[in-house]
């Protein structure tokens, strides 16, 4: 201490701090002790820690929580081995849990590291006690011997340039040409970064982690390959299939653009030049003014390319699907079985448990000693196929064991009922896929879609939702009923089935997951389904076709819709944009991206009440082909005759809407380096140089 602080030498006795046994924390292994400094003074009984991984200062009672956090663990590997970090990681991820195998491996191979202790003079300790990390490090660096002591025991930091050139690099680094490295005066570690793609300022200790983040990758594809990805809200869970998809797209864009012009821009500041790195726009303006005389822009020119398509669909979801088995729920007895147990349950004539419950629900059921016929359960067979059975938990199979009959199915997602011969057609349909997502979690839908929907993506989203809901909801529900009741449901239709089983809705709907269409699932807001009242479904007849069919149109977009388009049209860019133009004039502009459009739509959803499509049952179907104008004329006449008012809902323009902070804007406020939190940073060198690719 005398050698380092010649002017401040402690005389007499002092207090030594009690050190929490960090390395022996049982619940969570600790890493990064070698990048931690315990600061204390024998003149006081308090102490605090400087975490050089996260560039944060922590009190003694918060250090264990900090070292166990996901941020600290990911920052540690950002510092030492970025290959360990998950490519395209999401902010919602539990990084501690994801990195646990690597943390355990690190501790087993290298140990937790050696904690450094710094005994400070009393007055200096008190000064630093109220300082931030960066203020403390700046003060300590004024003593020329301390920086050397700090560096002597710290592992080498992996710089982003080093990682970019590393032949063993595991992850693609997209958008490097959008990074600006600003080097301060004298100390090579005093670097700050600007990402002109994401409009953020980034600290050295998180720059690699930022480039590997989905937020950055999303911005890259939005700029360089528009429409390749859906809106950011569609990607809420990190899994193998998601990671493989993003990695595949990243490798494609690397093949297209190569490694040319992928170097960062670099700015060296002259001594005395200050830059406020806590504000991106201000920092960029300052750096642009410095480089202006060199006629070099820090903003990379983007030439948008074509939409990229995934090369091969991953079998990840199918592989997981193959390991999961649906169980069977007996709606009558409120019991859950395996398929074999359920069939034995129906045939159990000794205990007659199922027969008693059947007779309790349906008093006119057959005799207790009557032989039970084994039902066809084709839905169970379908779930064991190669592809996941989307929405199977929302379907109730209606059977009768009094006679050999094919079952009738009731799908609560589609509000449809159909016979066994239409089961596969229904489950494979775009209608069922979309309405299942609308029912369970509409936030997984591709809001503001423009081109034909990617059915493989929708299927993977629906299956992810099923997996997140857990195995307890993966049950096939079977309702047994007397033959006389079953016969009344034939031929099946949803209104008929619900009306004939009105007294039995309790057991029919037992354990069917509730509808989340209008629930506030994300950021306490409901998914915006605007202008549903302008959608009209009606019956048509086609020449040479024996039965009637249903067609649809949109009164707002003034056109007919195809069968597949009808169920997704309400959240298409065309429909949402038309709604906002009519009800909130002036809110849109031609360059508005999907994320901003979603923000405006969410605002509109708070203003406008929930509406529903007009389902018109016509005594005489409309003969096709029939033009849009003639069709709405016929439909309007029908509504007037039935005394149900006008066909076209009234449009009352309301106030103009302005974009709130999108997730990109929120990232600007939230994803700051910890040095930025601590105010202005100073930097400088003898001369200003700019290197641009």
Could you give the topology of this structure?
Blueprint: E1 36-40, E2 47-51, E3 56-59, H1 63-67, H2 70-80, H3 95-98, H4 100-110, E4 116-119, H5 122-129, H6 133-141, H7 145-152, H8 160-165, E5 179-183, E6 191-195, E7 200-203, H9 207-211, H10 214-224, H11 240-257, E8 265-268, E9 274-275, H12 280-291, H13 316-322, E10 327-330, E11 335-337, H14 339-346, H15 353-361, H16 378-383, E12 395-399, E13 408-411, E14 416-419, H17 423-427, H18 430-440, H19 455-469, E15 475-480, H20 483-488, H21 494-500, H22 505-508, E16 535-542, E17 549-554, E18 559-561, H23 563-566, H24 573-583, H25 594-607, E19 614-616, E20 622-624, H26 628-641, H27 663-670, E21 681-682, E22 689-691
Parallel strand pairs: 1-4, 5-8, 10-15, 12-15, 16-19, 16-20
Antiparallel strand pairs: 1-2, 2-3, 5-6, 6-7, 8-22, 9-21, 10-11, 12-13, 13-14, 16-17, 17-18
Helix pairs in contact: 18-19, 24-25
Keywords:
4 domains; six-stranded mixed sheet; 693 residues; globular; 13% strand; alpha/beta
Word description of this protein:
With 693 residues, the protein is of the alpha/beta class. It folds into four domains: 22-152, no CATH class; 160-297 and 672-691, no CATH class; 326-508, no CATH class; 532-660, no CATH class. The protein is built from 27 helices and 22 strands. The strands form five sheets. It has a six-stranded mixed beta sheet with strand order 11-10-15-12-13-14. The radius of gyration is 32 Å and the shape is globular. The two termini are 48 Å apart.
